[in-house]
């Protein structure tokens, strides 16, 4: 297939909205004209060694996002309006949405709402479209001083920059008043919609008189403004319209599961450079937007406490997506650049982060029964090293082996890495901030590690021995290194207390808190509450010991001056005293 025809096919898979922006940017540049909706930058270096340019860009984005405009605004990287031509963007990977979010979040609050797309001109020149949504959380304020390498201050804490015509200026009192007035109006409208929704819940007859929504889900909905997507999903949940909810998931499946094979088909004859460029574009412009949308569907189901079957459908697709992405291992032999296929495992990793985000949100919102749709799912690990045998593990554990993370990426904890890499940019509004996300993630980690301790028979229970052996023969492993090494265990206490209550009661252990429903039945059997707490005390004690030893061996760092409190401390201390007594008696004998 000629490359020109191939490029047209790739562009055709973009949403109509992005294709319109792409065409309009080219048209405006050829004419040499400017309009408020499109801002052109020939190039911007965003690396740490280009602090001057980075700070200018942050100010520029803030100013554009603070503008009053009745439509989206686009920042076009790679276009030179003076010369009326495009120049290839050579640092295109710096414009990944996650990377941009990390840069902007340091200096701006609230975060501008934007999406980033890597596209090409009709004559194959790569450029970047940064699309800022129409409804921004204005005023967006500078929260950290920004100085260049030479000490020149370019950003002052409290600055509010705004774009007026072609100038970037500080906002005046009238500008700020207008921003707050518009925000207040939007909040008033939102409250009115909620009151109407509440009225319809109380009056079903009024609901039946309401005209049904007839929007049919399409891919353009996935890459459109987030507020429109969220409104659409909330309406489906509110009207119990599972048919269109499932239709939207099917639209996503065409991209997430079948899309990689379709991208393979578009390979030029022997032109691997063009082939992998197409895969990179597919990953950025189609796969990630679709993935973000599916995860957001799951988060909204949890938020509005909808039927768990809806979340089951979401997780079904995410599990299928993870398994489809595992097949990308076939590209690892071609890895020569820092893009695809060097990071062939990255789509599976992004999917995993999405699943973890949903599970963490269910914990944070105390909607624990939703975990029952996620925890029991086991997948074959993703591995680049054929020396590692193919074994299955719960998908919420760590379904990767020999994946080439650079040393130090996870030193501050996996949760913090997940937040900076994807969660903050894609779904950060559900958690509010990093601390809340880490709090929910820590509670989830305690639950997962408790499952792992039973699944690997750390308590050395005779009734578990055969069960664990059978699982091992079936190539299923419950081994897990918890993400509980970067901070003390204080954030885990709510989940630790909840497990205490369950075990002390002596009743059935909730199946939705297990990675295998049979695991607690075998482990606890007919044990009473006191006997179960002995096992649990051992778990709490070993977890704290493990944390200290892991920090020492992995990071050459001391453990934390922290301990369990109250009843948790009593059972952990009782176990420790019992173990010391056993050792003492053994030595004496």
Describe the structure.
With 589 residues, the protein is an alpha+beta fold. It has 3 domains: 3-171, Methyltransferase, Cobalt-precorrin-4 Transmethylase, Domain 2, CATH 3.30.950; 211-413; 433-474 and 489-589, no CATH class. Helices cover 54% and strands 9% of the residues. It contains 20 helices and 16 strands. It has helices at 3-12, 16-31, 51-65, 97-107, 173-202, 204-209, 219-222, 226-238, 242-256, 259-265, 272-303, 308-326, 346-364, 414-431, 434-455, 462-473, 493-505, 518-524, 529-555, 566-588, and strands at residues 38-41, 73-77, 79-80, 85-86, 108-109, 114-120, 126-132, 141-142, 146-147, 153-155, 161-164, 167-170, 378-380, 382-383, 392-394, 400-401. It has a 4-stranded mixed β-sheet. A two-stranded antiparallel ribbon has the order 3-4. Helix 10 (259-265) runs antiparallel to helix 11 (272-303) and helix 13 packs across helix 14. It starts with a helix and ends with a helix.
Q: Could you give a short description of this structure?
A:
The chain is of the alpha+beta class.
Uncertain residue segments? 1-13, 206-213
What is the overall pLDDT average? 85
- Which sheet architecture does the biggest sheet show? 4 strands, mixed
Strand arrangement in the largest pleated sheet: 1-2-7-6
Q: What is the first-to-last residue Cα distance?
A: 82 Å
By DSSP, the count of extended strands is 16
If you compute it from the alpha carbons, what radius of gyration comes out, rounded to the nearest whole angstrom?
Answer: 26 Å
Share of β-strand residues: 5-15%
Helix fraction?
Answer: 40-55%
Shape: elongated
Class from helix and strand fractions: alpha+beta
Discrete helix count? 20
Total domain modules: 3
